[in-house]
Amino acid sequence: MMEHVLDNPCWNALLSGNKNLAFGNDQVKYFATDVSPFVGMKDNSDEQFQILHDVTDHDGPVGFVSNTGRKAPKNWKLLSPNNAYQMVFDASTTAAKVEIDLVPLAEEHIPQMLALTRLTNPGPFAARTIDFGHYYGVFDGDKLVAMAGQRLHIFEYTEISAVCTHPDYLGRGYAKQLLLGQIHRMRAAGNIPILHVKDSNERAIKVYESIGFTPRTTIYFNILQKIK
Fold it and tell me: Which pTM value belongs to this model?
């Protein structure tokens, strides 16, 4: 059976829509550490994990994403296994209109974006994660209180990422508005919105389902550390 491009999302993103941010070779690819810790491999074999070990120019953790669980390969230590649902927006769904002002985020907003993600922990977010593009936020005066953006661009699929809201501003529907904004932007570009959510995050899953996302499969997000 032919593998779906979403079964090996990082590899296929680094081959296609994110190739401008890719380093590596024809077996393994990765992002710069200040963009994202995620890596991709052609077939996730032990041999390719060794190539990744040899070619990456840093010792920091890397994020390995797959639709199959596996033990840590030789020369790597598993720091954090995370099970997630991969959800795809239903093409038959008509997304609701955005009802609040969403502000495009730029270089001057990076310090606030980093502070907000440190506080809310929506997933890995670094100084140049904004390079994935199309980050939008909600402000209270000059204060960034919620945001969402894009990450993996996998052929015709685009991932919504870093959806987060300051704890003092929960319950106001900001995340839903940001999601709707991303959905409209992606569909206007001819892309299919996807997202990943921890399988234990029932509150977020219900929000995503109410908008029009349906689970496609379980995806494993594993954080690995090199063993020297």
Answer: 0.93
